[in-house]
Design brief:
Helix content is 38%, strand content 12%. The chain has 84 residues and is an alpha+beta fold. It has a two-stranded antiparallel sheet with strand order 1-2. The termini are far apart.
């Protein structure tokens, strides 16, 4: 257990050894929350890059992932035969 001091601006410095022991590295984003019993909990935050797709990129995805018409026709024939 470590003793830390609350600064005038409400800031707390967490000892580097403590951060390392839980796998937090420099400049890591953290989530902070207060619990109902008055504790303050810090957790590493996961940051995932996102990509916003253009209309052209979406069209490319649709082309690449499209089901070939001959496969659609074959599937329909197979389903029709099962119904008989």
């Amino acid at each position: 257990m470590e003793l830390v001091k609350l600064g005038k601006k409400g800031q707390v410095t967490i000892p580097k050894a403590l951060l390392r022991s839980i796998g937090v590295v420099d400049d890591a984003p953290l989530i902070v929350e207060a619990t109902s019993d008055g504790a303050i909990v810090l957790r590493p935050a996961a940051v995932y890059p996102i990509e916003i797709y253009s209309e052209e990129r979406i069209a490319e995805f649709e082309r690449v992932n499209a089901v070939p018409p001959e496969l659609v026709a074959k599937t329909r024939r197979m389903l029709a035969q099962k119904r008989k």
